[in-house]
UniProtKB/TrEMBL annotation:
Membrane-crossing segments per the record: none
GO MF, any single term: glycosyltransferase activity
Biological source species: Silicimonas algicola
Keyword set, alphabetical order: Transferase
CDD domains: GT4_PimA-like (cd03801)
Protein name, entry field: Glycosyl transferase family 1
Length: 427
């Protein structure tokens, strides 16, 4: 049975899901929007034109590295338009409308791809699955839905609560998004009801969708794998120098950046602690400017630069309000870096409190401050977590994810009465 994996993104977790089927001969194609081809004409031309290398660096974010080129099918035009609008300063509502149209156009294209034949199952992602599932129903083929995020109702509740506490987080676009929420959630709910099997990336994500109406018997949790780990743990920074805290990812409300800034301002002396912030800033200026003393903002950087920064740090700060997983956690573990995260991060499944990191309550600035103070007061114990962090990454690689994913899909299809050829799903 051949599977079509349909996902408008080229995120590594989508590539690895497709690879799970491909490595046992079960992948029909990975259908996506725009994918950069490292052997294509752009890759040859850009290095020799003005600013070409900078553009090529951005395109590398859309490269598919886990699959052979002959398994990749694309529908790039709307993704290019969306990226141009988002990076070119278009209004938030304009960018959102392009994203919404792109998602639905992509799914209709996936439905047409299914109708061409050769597909025994479709594996699609939330908000870009509905029309593909309708086509699958007409042809009697299996439907697998991947939820990479917590239930949207849960996040909406968390976000509104934070905006009640911090009115500065409100934007002129809030009413626009609130007016669309129920319609968009209804689409996600329809996808959930239509699916034969539902895959999530953590026990937290699974529980949130079951609370939202997903059938527990067909809903599985398969945590994402870690990137290739270091061969050996590196030494922690000088324990007599400032504590080195690193933030990786968008500095936004969803990641609780406003709470981190509040906790830092009230508790951290720049003589004793430094924070390096890597990622775009998504907070209103009034919530973080002037930058708290001891914080340095580096913007977005390429992965090798970030990974080097992990190795030069004492701890990763990831105080998210809501994350289905949070791949930055496993990326940090792969560099031997302990993590501070919350009970609303799916990756907390892999965190052992006091062993390879700390788990704190989400949405609580004081909990962030307490964790930072513990790190300051326990530098030796914190450094001792580096080996456990690295061992965690070694113990759950992408190869383990792929094997577990095939097993979950096969079991889910068995439960709904669709027996599968073990050669397609299992090692």
């Amino acid at each position: 049975m051949k599977t079509l994996v349909a996902f408008p993104s080229t995120a590594i977790f989508g590539q690895e899901a497709a690879r799970a089927f491909d490595e046992v001969g079960g992948l029909e194609a990975y259908f996506t929007s725009f994918a950069h081809c490292r052997s294509g004409p752009l890759a040859r031309i850009l290095p020799v034109v003005p600013r070409g290398r900078s553009i090529l660096t951005q395109l590398e974010r859309r490269a598919i590295t886990a699959l052979p080129d002959d398994k990749i099918e694309t529908r790039p035009l709307l993704e290019i338009l969306y990226t141009a609008a988002a990076s070119g300063g278009a209004r938030t509502r304009t960018v959102d409308r392009i994203w919404d149209y792109l998602s639905k156009d992509f799914t209709r294209a996936a439905a047409r791809r299914i109708a061409r034949g050769g597909v025994g199952a479709v594996y699609a992602y939330e908000y870009s699955a509905l029309e593909a599932f309708e086509a699958a129903d007409r042809l009697g083929i299996a439907k697998i839905l991947d939820f990479p995020s917590l239930n949207s109702r849960q996040f909406e509740t968390l976000q509104r609560a934070q905006k009640e506490i911090y009115p500065e987080l409100r934007t002129p676009d809030d009413a626009y998004f609130e007016a669309l929420f129920e319609t968009r959630q209804a689409r996600r709910d329809a996808e959930m009801r239509a699916a034969d099997v539902i895959i999530t990336n953590s026990s937290l994500t699974r529980a949130s969708h079951i609370a939202g109406g997903a059938d527990p018997k067909k809903t599985f949790a398969v945590p994402y794998g870690a990137p290739a780990p270091l061969e050996a743990v590196t030494a922690a920074p000088d324990p007599h120098g400032p504590l080195r805290v690193i933030w990786a990812g968008t500095f936004s409300i969803r990641k609780a950046a406003h709470l981190f800034a509040e906790a830092w301002r009230g508790n951290m002396d720049p003589a004793h602690a430094r924070a390096d912030i890597f990622g775009a800033i998504g907070l209103p200026d009034r919530l973080w400017k002037p930058a708290p003393e001891g914080m340095t903002f580096h913007g977005s950087v390429v992965r090798p630069v970030l990974f080097d920064a992990f190795q030069a740090s004492d701890v990763l700060m990831f105080p998210t309000l809501s994350d289905g997983f949070g791949m930055v956690v496993t990326e940090a573990f792969a560099r031997g870096l302990p993590v501070i995260t919350t009970d609303q991060a799916g990756a907390s499944d892999l965190v052992r409190h006091g062993v390879n990191g700390l788990i704190i309550e989400a949405g609580n600035a004081q909990a962030i401050a307490d964790a930072l103070c513990w790190c300051l007061d326990n530098r030796t114990a914190l450094a001792g977590m580096r080996e456990a962090a690295l061992e965690t990454a070694r113990g759950w690689q992408w190869s383990e994810y792929r094997s577990a994913l095939r097993g979950a899909v096969a079991e889910g299809l068995r439960r709904c009465g669709q027996e599968t050829d073990p050669q397609d799903w299992r090692n």
